Amino acid sequence: MSAQHSLMGRALDRLSEACVGVAMLLLVLIATLVVAQVVARNLFSTGLPWADEAARFAGLSMVYLATPYLLFHGQHVAVTMLAEALSGLKQTVCLALGELATLGFCTLTLYGFYRFLLRAGRFASPALGIPNLWLYMPALVSIVLLAVISLYRLGRLARGRDSTCP
Q1: Is residue 166 part of a domain?
Q2: How many Å apart are CA 43 and CA 66, to the nearest integer?
Q3: Higher pLDDT residue, 32 or 121?
Q4: Average pLDDT over residues 101-121
Q5: In a domain, 164, yes or no
Q6: For position 4, what pLDDT does the model report?
Q7: Which residues form the Tripartite ATP-independent periplasmic transporters DctQ component domain (predicted)?
Q8: Among 22, 20, 43, 40, which Cα is nearest to 32's?
Q9: Residue 30: inside a domain, yes or no?
Q10: Does the predicted model carry a pTM greater than 0.85?
Q11: How crowded is residue 76: how many other Cβ atoms within 10 Å of its Cβ?
């Protein structure tokens, strides 16, 4: 079981690193689109509504895609004063409750996406014409990966290991 566990850890680490790689590419795309907008306005007196929409999509996607890496490596925003003040089983239970809260957040968010996309999934973005399902896909992928990483961290806690190490 330990070999599978480390295999799962390596797979989640690679997936989260791939998400960060895509996020970095999106950051380059945002910078390129902003420069293109400035050049189009100042040199050609024209706007690029599609570039604005693409930059917003890239920015939101970048944030969502970076979060699984941060959670996997324990670099996410967390309030740890209570857990650090405890030890042994009490500390483990406190950390497990945090992971369960993360799972609850992921579950509610995915349900919200499901309900929202039942209506909005039929429409496309105004400037680019991209179906809403594709616009929200990076967030959906991120939330699913967050849930899997949280389950992984919960499993590590149950086996008495540090939840933040791959």
Answers
A1: no
A2: 35
A3: 32
A4: 95
A5: no
A6: 54
A7: 31-159
A8: 40
A9: yes
A10: yes
A11: 16
Residues 47-76 have pLDDT tens digits of 899 999 999 999 999 999 999 999 999 888
Amino acid (one-letter) located at 43 = L
What domain count does the chain have?
1
CA distance 97 to 17: 26
Distance set, CA 60 to CA 40, 43, 69, 88 (Å): 23, 28, 16, 39
Q: Scanning the structure block, which residue is given the tokens 């480390």?
A: 6
pLDDT over 70 for what percent of the chain? 95
- Mean residue pLDDT of the chain comes to 91
- The answer to whether position 122 is within a domain reads yes
Q: Taking a C-beta distance cutoff of 8 angstroms, is the pair 113, 140 a contact?
A: yes
Instruction: State how far the Cα of 34 lies from the Cα of 55, in Å rounded to an integer.
Output: 7
Where would I find the H helices in the chain? Answer: 2-44, 49-72, 81-85, 88-120, 132-158
The structure tokens 């997936």 sit at: 15
- Rg of the chain on CA atoms, in Å: 20
